[in-house]
Design goal:
Chain lengths: 423, 83
């Protein structure tokens, strides 16, 4: 007997809203979190715009102690800790440093690189022959699992505590791995999510690859244009998202608020075969990921009401839409509604999957589809595949029973999850 | 520098790292950093860096290993300052 798995808590630190309520309001109104950053211009970036969550020093002190903040220089850990603590509290739990160890709850929280600014500090010190000046804080903030080390200690989790990393698929993959663990009876609750640094050192390599837009430095809010004919590359973002997954049995026993059910999903890779490369997806594998997710969830493709896509605003958006049409066997007016959060927050890289899963679950809970901004001019290749009115540009109140969310990443990796409204 | 003055400065240095308020309140020459103040052993290296900055001295590896109590630390600081 496999456990049913539901979502009972959400936390988010996004460029257009920090905290669940602010983020919900932001996505409903189509608020852009993209701004111009002088430091990117000063360093000679082609793309000088990006999405950085607004977090005050005062806010930070609500989450980390003065001791934890000594020598602290890692936004990815900060966002992960904030989103994770928020999600845990949102699920109805308290945060107490003396709480008994909870062997029934685990943590899978991903990142791309951890504390890249802290890593830079360490490199400079070592090159100046001052290795001993690193103190005790360098390792904990630069190890990939830094975010889980901080969070699990704050919350006192005793089940599996680990960090995953699969490029822009990371957050969605974390969710699905946590889902499997609960489904198979290995844990009652899993806090899952991902985060990514706000740092030019994270973004620089993408700028060098010419995959970020350089055409909107004067109009940052117009820069992130998924599915648009005038899309010219992604806008970098950052932040963190977290979700509390819980067995239905445990959630009901606690009388917890249930946001949605995780019906199933799939994680696969394209092996950089059949057109797949280090940076481009193998279309066949993407389609297989989606069809396998649908099969895992025991639904049919025609039941999907809404898709939250990966859709980054690069030249690959039309291919993604084509993959969805083929995987679902639905096109034109028969295609589900589809949106991309990246139009509002940019591409939050390793954090993207988690922040977008949080946005997906909010849509199910509150029965609306958030607007795609900056795609009043839908790309002609996309219009040839699906009806333009399937890409809402205004908040749309609608009945959502099933929502499919997919994330794809460098290395030709894919993840697709199927969420269902909980009755 | 007098012992009392060093202990006073040391009190300020260790304050952010202590996890036992009672032990900190009663901090004396006999205080042990880990047993009495419950300082995380990983933070001892941070305290040593702070001591180096405060007293403008360099603490070698051998001395570092001995800096587990107020008494030993004061002794090492005095040695280094007089060296």
């Amino acid at each position: 007997m496999k456990n049913r798995v539901v979502i009972t808590g959400l936390g988010v630190v996004a460029p257009n809203g920090v905290g669940l309520q602010a983020f919900t309001n932001a996505i409903k109104s189509g608020k852009s979190g993209i701004t111009f950053h002088q430091n990117l211009k000063d360093k000679g970036f082609s793309c000088c715009i990006g999405g950085i969550p607004e977090v005050s020093e005062e806010k930070i002190q609500e989450y980390l102690t003065p001791l934890q903040l000594r020598g602290f220089n890692s936004t990815s850990i900060l966002y992960g800790v904030m989103a994770g603590i928020d999600a845990w509290k949102n699920a109805g739990f308290t945060v107490d440093e003396n709480s008994p160890l909870d062997y029934d709850t685990g943590l899978i929280f991903g990142t791309g690189t951890s504390g890249i600014e802290k890593f830079r500090e360490a490199i400079y010190k070592i090159d100046e022959q001052k290795v001993r000046r690193l103190g005790s804080t360098s390792v904990l903030q630069t190890m990939a699992s830094g975010v889980t080390a901080y969070l699990s200690g704050i919350l006192g989790f005793g089940n599996q505590v680990t960090t995953n990393s699969s490029a822009c698929t990371t957050g969605t993959e974390a969710l699905l791995m946590g889902f499997e663990r609960i489904k198979n009876g290995k844990a009652k609750r899993m806090l899952v999510g991902s985060s990514s640094d706000s740092s030019l050192y994270t973004w620089g390599g993408f700028d060098a690859m010419r995959v970020m837009t350089y055409k909107h430095n004067e109009s940052p809010e117009k820069g992130s244009r998924p599915m648009s004919a005038t899309a010219s590359g992604f806008v970098p973002g950052s932040g963190g998202g977290a979700l509390v997954l819980e067995s239905l049995e445990s959630a009901l026993a606690r009388n917890a608020t249930i946001y949605a059910e995780v019906l199933g999903g799939n994680i696969n890779a394209g092996g950089q075969r059949n057109g797949g490369t280090l940076t481009a997806p193998n279309a066949e594998a993407v389609q297989k990921c989606i069809t396998n997710a649908i099969a895992d969830a025991k639904i049919s493709a025609k039941e999907i009401d809404v898709i939250n896509g990966h859709l980054t605003a690069t030249t690959k958006d039309a291919l993604e839409i084509e993959n969805w049409t083929k995987a679902l066997g639905r096109k034109g007016a028969n295609f589900p509604l589809i949106n991309s959060l990246k139009s509002q927050v940019g591409h939050c890289l390793a954090a993207a999957g988690a922040i977008e899963c949080v946005a997906s679950v909010i849509q199910i809970k509150e029965q609306f589809v958030f607007p795609n901004i900056n795609c009043e001019d839908v790309h002609p290749e996309i219009v040839s595949l699906i009806d333009k009115n399937k890409i809402p540009t205004k908040k749309t109140d609608t009945n959502i029973t099933i929502l499919a969310k997919a994330s794809f990443g460098f290395g030709d990796v894919n993840a697709c999850v199927i969420f269902k409204k909980y009755n | 520098m007098k012992k009392e003055e060093i202990i006073q400065k040391l009190t300020t240095i260790v304050k952010p790292y202590i996890q036992n308020e009672e032990g900190f309140k009663n901090m004396s020459e006999e205080t042990d950093f880990i047993n009495d103040l419950e300082i995380n052993s990983a933070n001892l290296v941070d305290i040593i860096l702070d001591v180096e900055d405060e007293f403008d001295i360099h603490i070698d590896n051998d001395s570092m290993e001995k800096m587990l109590s107020v008494k030993a630390t004061v002794g090492i600081i005095q040695d280094k300052m007089n060296a």
